[in-house]
Amino acid sequence: MARNPERRTALLDAAIEVLADEGARGLTFRAVDARAGVPTGTSSNYFSDRDQVLSEVAERIFVRLTPEPGAIDASLLAEPSRALVVELMRWLARRMTAERTCYLGLFELRLEAARRPGLQARFTQVLREDLDLNIRLHVGSGMPGDADTVRVLYFALTGLLLDHFTVPGLHAERDLDDLVETVVNRIVPA
Length: 190
Hints:
Helices cover about 75% and strands about 0% of the residues. It is elongated. The chain is mostly helical. It contains 10 helices and no strands.
């Protein structure tokens, strides 16, 4: 296996783009090579098979979606309140919107994980770690609500972003920030 970390990252980013644009069925070594602008066969020097690409793409998506160190800590210095949860959720929705390709790739990986037990196990582990961290941050900072509040916010935001990216006209009369505020106000206790 080749060991150029920058090239590997570029191939994974290309794979995310292929997933977002063509779906999991379009994710081939040839498609990744073409998207990355490298010679045909390059991806097969870095990844043993498609399953490895999918697994590493999942990890790369979460690296790209992880905020800069300290970004969350600074926002948690404010007084815990429903209004702060609204602002944090808006910030999160904007981050996901800015990384549209990653988020669409994430949806594709969710569907693919339903068909591939190995990917499902790894994907579940990564999502579980992220959800557990969000619960710890929310509860530990004294935000209103409990662990189930965070879970319901997670369910709601995931569904809201699925609609936002896949059927944007469904809620065309409402802007994303407004929808996020509605979600938070319905879920988080005052």
